[in-house]
Amino acid sequence: MVDKKKPGLDMQVTTLWDYPSQNYGDGKQGDVNYAGATPSYVIWNLLKRYTQEKALVIDPMCGSGTTLDVARDLGRRALGYDVNPTRKDIFRVDARKLPLEDEKADFVFVDPPYGTHLNYSDDPRCIGKLDAAEDGYYQSMEQAIGEMHRVLKPSRYMALYVSDSFVKGKGFFPIGFRLFGILCKYFTPIDHVAVVRHNKTLEMGNYRKAADEGNFFLRGFNHLFIMFKEPAQKPARTSEKSKEANKGKHRGARPWGRKPGGHKPKKN
Fold it and tell me: Into how many domains does the chain fold?
């Protein structure tokens, strides 16, 4: 009989993912009791689709180490960083200054703090101490995203997993979309997945009553933004005639709907 609470490992083919359990299989990936733990199925799907064995996977905000455990299950190499390491194989590092050379990573996954709902650390560098209602949070996240772009190899992928926020008395904060705007400064968008949230608080009567009486919504899903780092473009030789014709034309970023050229997701 199939355990509905712990589904099997299957590659997802739609942009709606629903995983009622934190861990897959008989073991565990990360710590299910860690506040804000990422469902290991999410990382498993990303690594199966976008990496090969022995690829180097980086998680700059590693939390309880879910990314490390999934990567090793799949035969990938992994490095985890966090300002508040929860285990010995996670390095104490600020995501805004990664101790890694340029273009070394084959994939980057990040599940950042979003707002001040949870106390992740007493370290003053912790981005989780910054209010998502203030610009300082997004400035710090842009620094971290810039570092992720720096360490990622060209023609490789990264993913960011995050929720929006509603704070009673303050209103709605579209954290996901603001971070997506920052990501687009550095990467080309590949897709946007909605991952159903199974936070225990969603089932608590007092939370549901407060949402009903206060006429606001509880967060029912997380954003999963999948991005691509474009290969470096060598400047093309242009004739004087072409240069004159191109004067004044805007050369913007690649349109969102256009596929990255010459690189397909790597499957095992």
Answer: 1
